[in-house]
Amino acid sequence: MEQKTYKGKVVSAFTLRNSNGMEAVLTNFGGRLVSLRVPDHQGRLTDVVMGFDRLDDYFPERHLSDFGAVIGRYANRLAGGRITVDGVRYQLPQNNGPNCLHGGPEGWQYAVFDVLSITDNSLRLALTSPDGDNGFPGEVRAEVTYTLGDDQSLRIDYSAVSDRPTVINMTNHSYFNLGGTDRLLATVHNHHLQIDADSYLPVDEAMIPFGRFDPVADTPMDLRSMRRVGEGLNSDFPQIVQARGYDHCWVLNPQGDLSRCAAKVSCPDTGIAMELFTTEPGVQVYTGNFLDGVQGKRGMAYDRQTAICLETQQFPDSPNHDWPQSTGRLTPEKPYKSTTIFKYSFLK
Q1: Mean pLDDT across the chain
Q2: Helix/strand/coil for 8
Q3: For 242-270, how does the pLDDT look when each residue is reduced to its tens digit (9 = 90+)?
Q4: In this structure, are residues 274 and 36 in contact, taking their beta carbons and an 8 Å threshold?
Q5: What number of CA atoms fall less than 13 Å from residue 281's CA on the CB side?
Q6: Which residues are catalytic?
Q7: Alpha-carbon span 81 to 101, nearest angstrom
Q8: CA distance linking residue 305 with residue 284, whole number of Å
Q9: Is 298 helix (H, G, I), strand (E, B) or coil?
Q10: Rounded Cα–Cα distance for residues 196 and 185 (Å)
Q11: How far is CA 257 from the centre of its chain?
């Protein structure tokens, strides 16, 4: 990919490699993961994330997309586009029906990050979000570091500091298809998914959590053992029908234990398996329910349910709920830190 310029800032692509040949391409535009090539069961390097061939295809003038992006200030939905911080109510942009989604229409996925450092296997990026950015209070200085490990892992470390109380919820919005995005793209119905969670957050028609944790037992939301994704997507469970697929947050049992696998996805066609580890309390699973044929890499059409996103995060709409394990609050006295690891292997 050639270098580009966006609003007077240089946008570049950076390639990371580990000692086993695994390769990640990233860009400082939106802090995005552009491609991730891992070996399949035949030893072929397979790109497992969706995106575009050209850097400027990620610019909002060409495509409004979250492919591979760092999301901020607040990932997922905030009800009515409103938050209250220390008794003061703030009105945010409403870019998803009545809600504020992924930080607003000019969220961090469309910002050019500063490059702090680059090595053979790591990239460190930074962004300063001014007070009032998309309506959010306080100046926030955020960093994200991608590290490609020799254990076939992609580690993402997030951090942020603020000069006053505000809210924060950073995640990565990669669209995965372990069948490979460099070949004929099939739906993720034949993928298998497991989530270490006994409950999830049901949502209303505006996709906002009711505020309760519902048990997954005896529902298609029960992914405590490996389950074919298509079984759930083709069910008549009201929450799945309403969302046109999975678009829900699971309450993870590991609750911040980075040594414990929180979720796992596998594809029998390529033999690629991906484990998820995170310090976050929840993971939003989204199955590309609103992909509408956008032309992606090699001109391939990205159709509905051809991807699965695992967005580790604070619970959706946390600032508007009383959840002790998930507040989404950031203060000068308590900086934000979060880590997510995607680790790749073969099916046994």
Answers
A1: 96
A2: coil
A3: 999 999 999 999 999 999 999 999 999 99
A4: no
A5: 16
A6: 173, 311
A7: 8
A8: 15
A9: helix
A10: 28
A11: 19
